[in-house]
Amino acid sequence: MNKTLRKIVLILAAVILLPIIFFMTNEITTLNENESVINRIYSDQLDAILFSVNQYSEDIISSWASQNEIFLNENLTETEIKNFFSSHTSLTMIFEADSIDDEKIKFIQPESLADQNDEHNSDLLNHNIKSILSEKTDIIKRLYNYQQQGFRKIEPFADSRIQDTNLLLFVSEADNNKKIYGLLVNPQQFIQKNLSPKIQQIAGNEFVISVYDTLKSFQFNSHKEIDLPKIQQEKALWIFPDYRLGISLFGTTIEDLVNQRTKTNLILISILTLILIAGVWFVFRNIKKEVELAEVKSDFVSNVSHELRTPLSLISMFAETLELNRVKTEEKKKEYYSIISQEANRLGRIVNTILNFSKMEAGKRQFNFVNSYLNDVAENVYGSYKFHLENKGFAFKIIKDETIPIIKLDEEAISEAIVNLLDNAVKYSDLPDRQAGQKKEIIIRTGLENNFAFVEVEDKGIGIPETDQKKVFDKFFRVSSGLVHNTKGTGLGLTLVKHIVEAHKGRVELNSEIGKGSIFRLVIPLSKS
């Protein structure tokens, strides 16, 4: 990579790649921050929903406690007691104690349960409640303190001694007497009968709210059955210590939404980055081509100057010698005239090549297609070059396929293409380091292949490296290694050959191997007629 191209690469990296890297880093960082904020907002929203469920359940129990105070302070009939428990199906029993050490606790329960409980069970229940109260002395004292400050605090307990129910304790004052009250509530019935309507109303079609016990033996869902691992956020159910509230988005979890959005944004950022990198690569390739083109143009000017100067110098030198009458013999004069003629022809070919290339670049070159025999065109070129090549020590021959029909050709253009191939064959076959025993041989060959006619020029020269075979038809390109680079030429000959053949709707094929020579084939389609 030359200095100019290296500078361009550094500038592109600084101007384009660095902003891309900064943009990607900033976007990914911002994206992570945004997703964190979204996740926190969702989390707060779910917490608020669970809080509202908890608050509602506590409000229900608080209203029961208020009714309970009235209920116990009035002399109610059995019918009224029955109606009270019928409207509170999850409430299994109420008790009242004057103090922690109260020997006889007053129990009120539905007739159906009272009939089922014998005296032994009543004594056992009385004993269990007294045991619980004695164990919760500190809590009960705290409840008294709340009561003195004008608050009624309800304290829940889950205890194995009161199976299938939870105990809710609170303290109330009636007739200047402070009493301890307890509500025994069946949690599962409370959840299904009292709490479920509110849960379903809050959840709607957006969330699934679940209530389940810590042993996972019971679970109520507002919408449908879901597995516990899918629950996104959970809180303790205040009034029942052994139960929890869980919530998740309906159909899709918060993590799914966040991950999906993150994935989508990262994909978009990646695609944008790839597009920017592709744009940088495209700009770099075009600049690289322009730099390389500028270099080969510089080489072209240098090569053409050398190519023009050599024949002009020879023509000038031999013409001056003849003009000063320094050549005494006719044989020597004839030799000098021949050299001047050859160099003039060489100069003319160089000029014609440059002019034809200029026309080709401008799109102004016109072709005159006529019905022609490809063999005749090849034969004419062979006849023109036979004497010259044999004098240079080449074995030069032509092999023709006589079955080739008449096809439409621009005879002058095809002749020019074959001549350019012959010039290349001579240049790269007659080099100083030609291997011993390597033949100086050139063959012109014509033939038919499918619906195409071809003419090819084969040499036994040094060959073309495989890496350069696709580039030799590019304008100004010359192989840049060894003696090939030192060989004279403009780098336009094969470009013109390709242009001429493509104007005939054909193609150029190259088969070359280092040290064994090259075959250039011009393939031309047969006329439709």
What is this entry, summarized?
This protein has about 525 residues and is α+β, with helices and mostly antiparallel strands. About 55% of the residues lie in helices and about 20% in strands.
Q: How many E-type strands?
A: 16
Indicate the proportion of strand residues. Answer: 15-25%
State the major sheet: 5 strands, antiparallel
Please report the distance between the alpha carbons of the first and last residues.
Answer: 53 Å
**CATH architecture verdict of the domain at 366-525:** 2-Layer Sandwich
Structural class: alpha+beta
The stretches of 5 or more residues where confidence is low (pLDDT under 50) are none
User: Could you say what the CATH topology of the domain at 366-525 is called?
Assistant: Heat Shock Protein 90
CATH first level of the domain at 366-525: which class?
Alpha Beta
